[in-house]
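<amino_acid_chain>
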Amino acid sequence: MAEAIVEKVNETAAFLKTQYAEIPEVAIILGSGLGNFVHNINVEKEVPYNEIPNFPISTVKGHSGKLIFGELSGKKIVAMSGRFHYYEGYTPQEVVFPVRVLKMLGVKTLLLSNAAGGVNPAFAVGDIMLIKDHISFAIVNPLLGKNIDEWGTRFPDMSEPYKKHLIEKAKVIGKEAGIKLHEGVYFGVTGPTFETRAEYKLIQIVGADAVGMSTVQECIVANHMGMEVFAVSVITDLGIREEENVITHEEVLEAANAAEPKLAHLFTELIKVI
């Protein structure tokens, strides 16, 4: 099983190298409603997921489903416009398959974004939270099974899953641009249901500030393979609230789109100083 995964990752990476000869040093994975960020990239090559050997296919509204190679802030980058989720029916290994491939392409730094529900009472819809840590107990760890030693150690350290020096650089960028940035803990869940009111309260009690259905598995594997990770959540709905409102995916996408210019500035400037 492990040998088959290695073979597939190597096959996919070899194919992508025939499509784009440069080595991208930074990769970006764009979350729900954040796909317009690609307009900031000087695009040199686009490869639809359905043309990439062994690649999953994105099935969620708000995820376009293509790999974009190009230049941003003077650096060669690759962006995943659309990610994969456990709730789509993919295994954890399939969810993180693209992260493995990104590493094999030469990526050193992985920037992650997501749409998340706020459980910190200080948060408002449209706010941006820099993820300083996460709680992964409610997701399936993608490293279960035989370890592939050439990719990373059996028991990877997760004491600093999101690099502090990147968080500090982002805070400086936000301050200079007048962008309000929170810093907090992300609680990963499987989805696809939004949380019950009791679950939101539990997530808040255990120490999280936001909750979402992605990012954590990608972060774990990126750390396993030695990449530096930076991640942000766009707060698109509020889980801790008084009114009896209902959360919809359409509202999540709308809030993410509204916050996108701030996120674009943050990522663009951060890539300059990486």
Remarks:
- The domain at 2-273 is CATH 3.40.50.1580 (Rossmann fold).
